[in-house]
Amino acid sequence: MENIIVKTKSLSKHYHAGTHTVIALDGVDFEVKERELVSIIGKSGCGKSTLLHMIGGLDRPASGTVIVDGMDLSNMNEEQLALFRRRKVGFIFQQYNLIPDLNIYDNITFPLELDGTVVDREFIQELVNTLHIADKLEMFPSMLSGGEQQRAAIARALATKPAIILADEPTGNLDTSASHDVIGLLKVIAEKYQQTLIVVTHDLDIAQMADRIIRLQDGKIWKGK
Predict the structure, then answer these.
(1) In the chain, what is the straight-line distance between the N-terminal and C-terminal CA atoms, in Å?
(2) Residue 132, domain member (yes or no)
(3) pLDDT value of residue 2
(4) Is residue 2 part of a domain?
(5) pLDDT tens profile 171-200
(6) What pLDDT does residue 198 have?
(7) Tally of structural domains, the chain
């Protein structure tokens, strides 16, 4: 029996915009199995990123629960959530968020250094070989193309050997060719290291590379056909 690594129950989130209340999530029940690759699609403002941020402990729900790798995030304080994010989640964003003054190797290993964890150099070397950036490690982010920077961001997300990888529009700043290249490598990496991967995207071609597609509409999981 496959393990459920992500589970949300009756997850809701509301935002106040002036006199209006925006319902970002409206009672979302959602499960992801270990080692599954799931894509979340939907129109802008449908709640895709909000759901991803809840799963990653970047935001708190108005109501409902989020359980990741057996840990109930609603019971955690800010310090515990920070530790959870650092050790359990690998984040990949549209903006690469690489540190300009650090070379690529130091960018990749930064989360490990931050946590006081010994760097598994053999694992890092294997990662960068798979992602085709082994020859870029001494370079700085500004010296790399967008696709190369995103591959470095993927290596950084995987460096801590997290329970799940969360990718929020990871190809949003890339052209079509680089987008498919990056997503293809991300899928290869996830399968190679038996990772659970959740990708938020507006690109149906990218979404269809997943094992399963979840559609969000008006803060709810769409049940239509």
Answers:
(1) 28
(2) yes
(3) 67
(4) no
(5) 888 888 888 888 888 888 888 888 999 999
(6) 96
(7) 1
Range of the domain at 139: 35-60+75-221
CATH code of residue 93: 3.40.50.300
Q: Could you tell me if residue 125 is inside a domain?
A: yes
What local confidence, expressed as pLDDT, does residue 1 receive? 47
Structure tokens at 38: 């799931």
Residue at 58: amino acid letter: L
User: What string of H, E and C letters represents the secondary structure of the chain?
Assistant: CCCEEEEEEEEEEEEEECCEEEEEEEEEEEEEECCCEEEEECCCCCCHHHHHHHHCCCCCCCEEEEEECCEEHHHCCHHHHHHHHHHHEEEEECCCCCCCCCCHHHHHHHHHHHCCCCCCHHHHHHHHHHCCCHHHCCCCHHHCCHHHHHHHHHHHHHHCCCCEEEEECCCCCCCHHHHHHHHHHHHHHHHHCCCEEEEECCCHHHHCCCCEEEEEECCEECCCC
What would the two tokens of residue 6 be?
């992500």
Which of the residues in the chain have pLDDT under 70? 1-2, 224-225
What contacts 17, CB < 8 A, 6 or more positions away? none
